[in-house]
Structures are given as C-alpha cells and as structure tokens.
Amino acid sequence: MTLRLAVAADVPALAALYAQAARTFGPAVYTPAQVQAWASFGADTPAFRDYVLGARTWVALDGDARPLAFCGVDGSGEVRSLYVRADATRQGRGSALLAHALDDARARGVHRFAAWVTPLSRPVFERAGFRLVARVTQDFQGVSFERLRVEGPTARDGV
C-alpha cells in the first residue's frame, strides 16, 4: 500500500470511494434514508472538497494507483475522515492508515485526538486507543443520525 497526501485532483475519486462505502456498509446499521443521506455528502463538491483538503488527508493507493482508502486529521487533532474501499476492507488497511495519520499529526505537534464515528468505524478507533465519550442525535440532510464521539489516544497511552 503506497501512501501520499491528497491533492485537489483526488477529490472526485475519494468522493466516489466515500459514497461506495456508505452504500455498501451503511445498510448494516442505518435505514435506507440514512444511507442515502450519508452517501449524498460525496456529491456536495465544495463541502466534500473541504472535508478532504481542509485536513491533512492521506490516501492509500493500490498497485494501479487507485485510491484504496483515505484518512484526514486536521491541525486541532480532529480525525475528519477514515474510509476504505469496499473490496479492500478487513485487511488492516484502515487501522494502518489511521495509525499513519495520527503519527504524522504527532510529528506536527498534535497530541490530543477526537473524532465523530459511526457504529461501523467505532471498533477501528477503539483498537487504536480511542474511547467513547458521548452519543448525540443530530440531523444530517434532514435525516436523524446517532453520532458517536470518541477521544484519544494521547502520547501517554503509548500509541
């Protein structure tokens, strides 16, 4: 798996990966309306562009230089994204990419991390040392979602 920082030209491919992940994995925990709302965010070009480029987003590429996954952490330690292409899941790529993005942020002086996660991604974050600190219900594109707030790991967690 080759890693590099995302650039503007990556946004369409990452939006497609994002929407594919929502449509593939979302039905396991969300209603059809929730899946549609979640997947549609990738089509909101200006907002999705900021989602990717407003953080230091790492892209994992396959052997054909196509995106396998992406993970972005902003300067405040907010993990803004972690998505893996459907045919590349369950192989440790998400965990490896999250670890790389956190290590990169630590090297830039960030030492506290947090994220809003789904029930699908929560186990990946917990394996990385994050802990659940809150559950909230919020509307997104007119559809109600339960969101999970996780925090950690800190340098003293040994991660």
The 3D shape can be described as globular
DSSP helix fraction: 25-40%
- Whole-number radius of gyration? 15 Å
Q: Which parts are unreliable, with pLDDT below 50 for 5 consecutive residues or more?
A: none
As laid out across the biggest beta sheet, the strand order is 1-2-3-4-5-7-6
CATH architecture: 3-Layer(aba) Sandwich
Estimate nothing, just give the exact number of structural domains.
1
Reported for the largest beta sheet, the result is: 7 strands, mixed
At the first level of CATH, the class is: Alpha Beta
Number of strands: 7
- Name the structural class: alpha+beta
Q: Report the average pLDDT across residues.
A: 92
Describe this structure in words.
34% of the residues lie in helices and 30% in strands. With 159 residues, the protein is α+β, with helices and mostly antiparallel strands. It has a single domain, classed as Gcn5-related N-acetyltransferase (GNAT) (Aminopeptidase), CATH 3.40.630.30. A 7-stranded mixed sheet has the order 1-2-3-4-5-7-6, sandwiched between helices. Helix 1 runs antiparallel to helix 2. It starts with a strand and ends in an 8-residue tail after the last strand.
